[in-house]
Amino acid sequence: MQDRVYNFSAGPSQLPLPVLEQAQKDLLCYPGTGTSVLEMSHRSKAFDDIIVEAEASLRRLMDIPDDYAVLFLQGGATLQFSMVAMNLARQGDTMAFIKSGQFSSKAMQEGARWGNAVCVASSEDKNYSYIPKIDPASFPKDARFLHFTGNNTVFGTTFWELPQIPAAVGGAAETRLVGDWSSSILGMDIDVKKHDLIYAGAQKNIGPAGVTVVILKKDILDEPVDPLLPVMLRYKAMSDGRSMHNTPPCFAIYVSGLVFRWVEEQGGVAAMEKINREKAGLLYDFIDGSDFYTGLAEPGSRSIMNVTFKLPSKELDAEFIALCASRGMINLKGYRTVGGCRASIYNGMPIEGVKKLVDTMKEFELVKH
Amino acid sequence: MQDRVYNFSAGPSQLPLPVLEQAQKDLLCYPGTGTSVLEMSHRSKAFDDIIVEAEASLRRLMDIPDDYAVLFLQGGATLQFSMVAMNLARQGDTMAFIKSGQFSSKAMQEGARWGNAVCVASSEDKNYSYIPKIDPASFPKDARFLHFTGNNTVFGTTFWELPQIPAAVGGAAETRLVGDWSSSILGMDIDVKKHDLIYAGAQKNIGPAGVTVVILKKDILDEPVDPLLPVMLRYKAMSDGRSMHNTPPCFAIYVSGLVFRWVEEQGGVAAMEKINREKAGLLYDFIDGSDFYTGLAEPGSRSIMNVTFKLPSKELDAEFIALCASRGMINLKGYRTVGGCRASIYNGMPIEGVKKLVDTMKEFELVKH
Q1: Is residue B266 within 8 Å of B61, Cβ to Cβ?
Q2: In this structure, what DSSP letter does residue B215 have?
Q3: I need a surface site. Which of A217, B188, B271, B358 has the fewest CB within 10 A?
Q4: Contact predicate A95/A115, CB 8 Å
Q5: C-beta neighbour count of A104 within 10 angstroms
Q6: Domain boundary among B222, B250, B265
């Protein structure tokens, strides 16, 4: 077998090796069934056990209270942009959005198809290099929800404090807090109880692409929705069907369950956050001590999942990225609107990968500086 | 390793063993990449090759003309029920549906959320045991499309002739033909050119659950859609993004591509149809020659994908199904609204599995009759 590389992709991204090995071992025959999970009826006892245990494991990991439902859906975070608006607001209702990067802007764009999407904070002025603060005066009193993107994959920033819905708010309608935590879920502590709804595309810290986790307060399920809403876009139908209203993405849910078990074996989310802080610290400390590399996110807003930085020129960026690739460290190119480099170091990235990257950064600086 | 069973599930269902073996072999390292497809960036060259080749292979297999787009989407056939209505009709427009079973009724139900869904033929009177004919007189002149379910998984019936849109139709609006071919695609000849849109959930003849194939005439992409339509529900956005507007279900697409290649190696769809007719023939001939087993679908409507039958009593049904399970033939229970037994014998089911089933049917009849 060819050597495996260190994959610094922003997503889909590197999975823990023991998870892949387990999936490989059982690929032809899931124990006790004589079939692959790729072929397994979602109405079978074996798959029911898989999805029930995946949910139970996630509930333990994130300390999800009983009055929250956990759903495994399709369509990625992008479909959640729409489902959040269409389930939490009526047509024309007001919704509040924090624009802290690319995906938060897309969420607002989708919300605007359905209602009155108001931007209550933005860091667009500095190309999203920091986490913006809400101006309480401009916060719409009738916002059905406040949406934010907890970790901004493209820019490498994170909400280290949850956004506060201004106290003045709260007239007829309660303003719910909705967090897209696609790229930090299970990688750092997230207080579920302080949210009404959290969603996360799997392909960063959870598992393979093709499944999206939604954690939502059960009282959301009682809210009436527009009759035109497709059944597949209704949280209540998805919850009533235990994420199996129709055939779910069985294999992606199964692999996610293996990842959840692996995170539990590592000591849970607190243990993952500790090692993720250590991994990110190695990179940020080196960047801060160098005048060759420059960090792209403001220090107080820095993500421990996506570390963005640049070299003194675009040519050096490209040369460095190519050198890394030649040494088995791939997908380090920054997103095109940001440039430079981006090292995504989710749970599946071992610290050895980060050390190897820092060593290569040191060496490249010595040669080029 | 435990012995693999013969899995007669209606879906997700048995996949060709060489496909599973290939996926297993490359699970840790897809050749030339150093990563698993489960971890692979959808923006990478390697994944682009995978999705491009999957589409090319499907185009060869189904002889898909250049003026049709091929999409790999999420959400299953159930999301297509809504996407078809919301993309091919404006709010309130008329749509025609043939009710030939459970999924066609659900398609009509989702259509009715968006517009005026008219039933133009139904076999509900005989519990969907046959394919109904359209009454031209009752066909709405302004129907934007006619929707039918090509193969009815639950009841074991198939449209051996495509439904005809009555000649009288065709005023201002053209009536498009939309076929849900989830359970027959690649298992029998389907003339793409006679449809405007075909869709199919993968988990029967295509691959694992979690991806849906949509084949549609490109001129549909030019039709204006309602501004409120979520981006994930817009065929044009999905086509513009080459099925990668957001992260697609990479692994499910990859395994589907392996299945497409396997079907090509078997000699293509014509070869599959030949063996599928042979497999179904073994079962139907035996059932027709027996007064112990009774076929549930009318002979002229019989599916070669799902063979439904019953024994003289519910107790015998259950006893027979349990006997089969003990011999490594699983998921033979009929759907609850139909009862009896159902043998789903998609492309992945080898003829040996069907022979073993018929042998067990013979033996059980001898003992019990």
Answers
A1: no
A2: E
A3: B271
A4: yes
A5: 25
A6: B265
